[in-house]
Amino acid sequence: MGEASEPIVKLFGWFDISAEVITMFVMIAVVAVVSLIVTRNLKERPGKFQNMIEAAVEYLDNFFADILGKKYARKYLFYLASLFAFIIIANYSGLIPGVGYFRWFKAPTSSLSVTLGLSICTFFFIQIAGISMGAKHYLKHFLTPIVPLILMDEFIKPASLALRLFGNIFGEETVLENLYNIIPIGAPLIMMALSLIFCAIQAMVYTMLTASYLEEFIEE
Q1: Residue pLDDT, tens place only, 138-172
Q2: Cα(134)–Cα(154) distance, rounded to whole angstroms?
Q3: How far, in Å, CA of 183 to CA of 160, rounded?
């Protein structure tokens, strides 16, 4: 349960390519194309699409500024916004009709290996951000009588982030699948509508906790 899907393709006879990886490749391609479209046609008077993208970026900037302050929110927005975009798109990919039954595609965040890898990247990003503030500033975070607990907490955080995201998305997909088998008409549509909100909340919670952990290291 929660393991990555069976390998679909073997790259160079060595690397296993699973459904989660294929879905992530598709996600990256879509985001890259959208980014090119937006950045190549920027206008002083934005159209509806550009206006929507700018509003989303501004909302995230203000959201993280409430946690980190304006200076550091702008400095680390590239990672936090990318993290949010990746998670919310990955979550929503599982709601596309037929994805759960098509072996080539699967919501990446419904696999523990993906959420754990994401959380490990976040762990190192936070540590590097803390070190960039200066060795003295970084070490001050650990200068406390309960340093063993602080160290343990640092390693528990990525595991907690990974398990929380995986558990919620995997549970939501499991409920939706079982509900479809029991009541194939009507009920799954209601659940999918609720999942649109639920998936966005999970992406926001993950990035909010990441920003909070980051704030502990960079606070002056």
Answers
A1: 888 777 777 888 888 888 999 999 999 998 888 87
A2: 19
A3: 34
